[in-house]
Write a structure and sequence with these properties.
It contains four helices and seven strands; from the N terminus they run E-E-H-E-E-E-H-E-E-H-H. The protein is of the alpha+beta class. InterPro entries: YceD.
């Protein structure tokens, strides 16, 4: 665990939960806001691929604008762009897909979260667009790496397939004897054969 000049201590890193971790000290964000661009290194990309069950994360890049608000919260907007390796669900061939996900999240001090969550609940009961619940500022830090990871995972196609791949329905030749009414037909013909002629 390390500390910054303000005396705050960074949260302990949990690689299994946060494979791409980039901390921003909220106390050092200027009033005019902060622009950050981040690129995931090879270790972070491999960890994300392992968690998401991907063949690989070839590249992952994110841009953020962090703006402080008068109530002590911060609005974080931006987008994450990535290229990932997957397996076609039809042909099982390796394929690559692009991800481009927008980000718009409010970060707030933990003590403000319950009050802001109530506002979200109230908005759900109205006809207005419901805002997303705020994320907590943990120990004075905003983790934009985790934010980028969440957006990247959200953009993954769970059923990837090649552009020219189509599902082919297997058609099997049906056996007339397997028809559900075949037995009934046989019984009917047998019964008809026992009827006296002309009667």
């Amino acid at each position: 665990m390390s500390s910054d000049p303000t005396g705050r201590r960074e949260p302990v890193r949990d690689p299994s939960r946060d494979p791409w971790r980039v901390l921003v000290n909220a106390a050092q964000i200027p009033e005019a806001g902060l622009h950050r661009e981040i690129e995931a290194d090879e270790a972070a990309r491999q960890a994300m691929a392992d968690i998401a069950g991907l063949r690989g994360v070839i590249s992952a890049h994110a841009v953020f604008d962090i703006m402080p608000k008068q109530d002590g919260s911060y609005q974080v907007t931006g987008r994450v762009q990535a290229r990932i390796g997957q397996t076609c669900v039809v042909t099982l061939d390796p394929i690559e897909n692009d991800i481009d996900e927008p980000i718009d999240v409010i970060f707030a001090p933990p003590e403000q979260i319950p009050q802001m969550a109530d506002l979200v609940d109230d908005a759900e009961e109205s006809d207005e667009d419901t805002p997303d619940p705020p994320e907590p500022i943990v120990n004075g830090f905003i983790d934009i790496g985790r934010l980028a990871t969440d957006a990247l995972f959200l953009g993954i196609d769970p059923y990837p397939r090649k552009a020219d791949a189509v599902f082919e329905k297997m058609v099997e030749a049906s056996d007339p004897e397997d028809h559900p009414f075949a037995a009934l037909k046989a019984l009917t013909e047998k019964a008809d054969g026992k009827k006296p002629k002309g009667g």
